Amino acid sequence: MAILIPDDNTAKDTLYKRQITPQPPFFNKDFSHKEPINSYFDPKKVKINSTVSSNKNPVQVLNELYLGASFVVIGQSGPDHLPTFKVSVTVGGRTFYGTGRSKKEANVSAATAALKFINQESKKEEVLEDEAAKGAVMMLNEWYPNTAYQYEETGGFVSARFRVTAIVGTEKFVGMGSTKQAAKTEAANLALTKLQFNLQAKKPTEYSGVVVETEEQKMADHVARLIQEKFESLMSKDLLHAKRKVLSGIVMTRNGNLSDAEVVAVTTGTKCISGGYISTKGSSLNDMHAEVLSRRCLISYFYDQLDLVAKFQEQKSIFTKRTNGKGFKLRKGVEFHLYISTAPCGDASVFSLNEYGDKMDKHPNRSCRGLLRTKIENGEGSIPVDGTRQTWDGILQGNRLLTMTCSDKICRWNVLGLQGALLTHFIEPVYLKSVILGSLFHEEHLQRALYGRIDHTIKKVVLPYCINRPNLARLTVCESRQASNSTNFSVVWCRGNTQAEIIDASIGKPELGVSKFCKQELSRRFVRLLGKISSVTTVENMKANLYCDVKEAASEYKATKEVLLDAFVASGLGTWVSKPMEQDRFVIK
């Protein structure tokens, strides 16, 4: 069904009242010529029944369909008695513009432009998906007519209520879903993929009766399944917080063995803290995107393992002493795999519009490729950095809090490691072995975003640091879209915890107290290790007690960070936007 866009006369009679928040200077610039749709933008989710009341104006309709819509006044022209206002509205990373004699009229004009675009994209998306995914069950039955199906109701998690097994010859392919049809379709898709069915030619390759699967693909599917099952187990009695748009997690393996793989972190989330709640004591989480929270869980797990060393149980720890006796390093064979249910926001996803696009980037040299981007506060999507330096008083006065995208952060982890500055006082850098996506996998865009964009401009990195190039993989069967509005909470679970934390994304804290994964709590764990285990930097002899000073004292980490940030600038990708320095000037104890 198409969206019913109210006419201008109706809109003017029922203008929507909305407070306009002052914005930083960036919004006076027009980047619309290089802003494609963000990967989080799902035109299909905004389809509504054609019976939408025609007495609603476009602003009301847009806000009903997309709660993250943000209207901003970006200009005013003309004489005072007859002004013309220009307004922008951002929907899923795409910006639309409108003008009018009043702010309200300009809002209506911008909303109308957005709704027209959403209508067009919704139709395009339907054509793409219908063409690519048409009749998976029908095709399987046509080319493998002896296929049998087994149905089972699990009685478990909502999204996996039904299990259907497609049996082709001696092979079995299992699909899970909230309905029998969804589970059957997933099983059919899995069978067609693993039987090397040619989806473009709509015919199979010669079936030998044996499914060929690489070790890398087995690993990717296994890691994702472990994380999905753990999340379902955690949320089995909490259906309210089981709702999610992005799921992430980290799995640890030893020597590549799947049999003893361990889930270290499971997280959900797509939001960042509101600027008014940023903490000067390190008590709030700033970024509640799932993959960022997974990394914070991993840091907590590293502290658990160092605590074992402090208790003279090093043989049980994943860390062992360095050869020079100063500090520790990861045991040989221990590897970490990051799973994200969709492409990380920013450069990896902003050009990956769907599963069925071209495998090759037709415009790899466009200036918008590889740009550093910041997340949109209280919304979704991302915008290119503009050299803004964030200040504490500016944020308190209403400027948007800028947070670097997940693509940019993962790229940073691939140079500086996952452990952060504080832990480098005790351990060598730890890097990801693989990054696995559940959907929107475009290898060229992902490779560029996670390490390729700095490959040719980064100066020599001194050991033990390196430019990490993790294995990039996708699931055999892409994760189905989570076509719902983003939740304003995040679920955070780390190995060793019996329950998951539920974080209010607007304030960066759980309902009571603070998160055990915030800077304040992790820095306390750091202090408890001082003097109990050997360090790389003799940090135990420092007299500094401010969080920012202890970070600065990690000299090798700091130097490598400067090399990385210079590489972004040298590549013409922009300048990294840091949080105001005041937030790290708290005493750790």
Automatic annotation (TrEMBL):
Keywords: RNA-binding
Domain A to I editase, first and last residues per copy: 265-586
Molecular functions (GO terms): double-stranded RNA adenosine deaminase activity; double-stranded RNA binding; tRNA-specific adenosine deaminase activity
GO cellular component labels: cytoplasm; nucleolus
Domain of life of the source: Eukaryota
Domain DRBM: 57-120, 135-197
Biological process (GO), any one: RNA processing
Protein name as catalogued: Double-stranded RNA-specific editase Adar
